[in-house]
Amino acid sequence: AIDNNLTRAVSGGDPVQIAAIKGGVAGAINIAIALALGQRFPDALRVVSAGTIGLIGYGISLVAFVLALRHLGAARTGAYFSTAPFVGAALSLLILSESPEIGFWIAGALMALGVWLHVSENHDHEHDHEALKHVHLHIHDDHHQHAHDFGWDGSEPHSHQHTHEPIKHSHPHYPDLHHRHGHS
């Protein structure tokens, strides 16, 4: 939960850069721990192999996770990503032609119910947006009404530093990058 909320705090940044920094820091810490425990540094082939597996299995997933944090908030993102082991297990059942026990189906149904409750929620109320200046990929919707101080060709989505003016309005929303407000 701490990691998800810390990552959510920077989720407006470049998701590839965030994933690279998190992966680099985690890798350096794990290497330091292994070396401190007396392990030898692996040969180049193992380093490249482990790096490739990490990029595919962790890096791409982390980029998707950061994007989900930006658009869905920490709780929904955590709930959706918690279904990943179930999906992996379901695929392994298909590949290995095994028969799952009843607990597998009960857990799967509970996870599906949780995701459905999140997806079907209608969170709609009047809320305030404070002035905000940041950079991220966006289209010109109700939250992105701003002028451009550069030659913009009209293509969307696009990314640049922009300022959000204070606004009060009502519409369905998730606790995304622009809707992290309190509720009374």
List the helices and strands and how they pair.
Elements: H1 2-9, H2 15-36, H3 44-72, H4 74-81, H5 84-96, H6 102-120, E1 124-129, E2 132-138, E3 158-164, E4 167-172
Antiparallel strand pairs: 1-4, 2-3
Helix pairs in contact: 2-3, 3-4
Overall pLDDT score: 83
Order of helices and strands: HHHHHHEEEE
- Give the terminus-to-terminus CA distance: 23 Å
- Number of structurally distinct domains: 3
Commentary on this structure:
The chain is an alpha+beta fold. The chain folds into 3 domains: 1-76, no CATH class; 82-121, no CATH class; 127-172, no CATH class. It contains 6 helices and 4 strands; from the N terminus they run ααααααββββ. The chain has helices at 2-9, 15-36, 44-72, 74-81, 84-96, 102-120, and strands at 124-129, 132-138, 158-164, 167-172. The chain has a two-stranded antiparallel ribbon with strand order 1-4. α2 packs across α3. The longest helix is centred in the N-terminal third of the chain and has 29 residues, at 44-72. It is globular, with a radius of gyration of 21 Å. The mean pLDDT is 83.
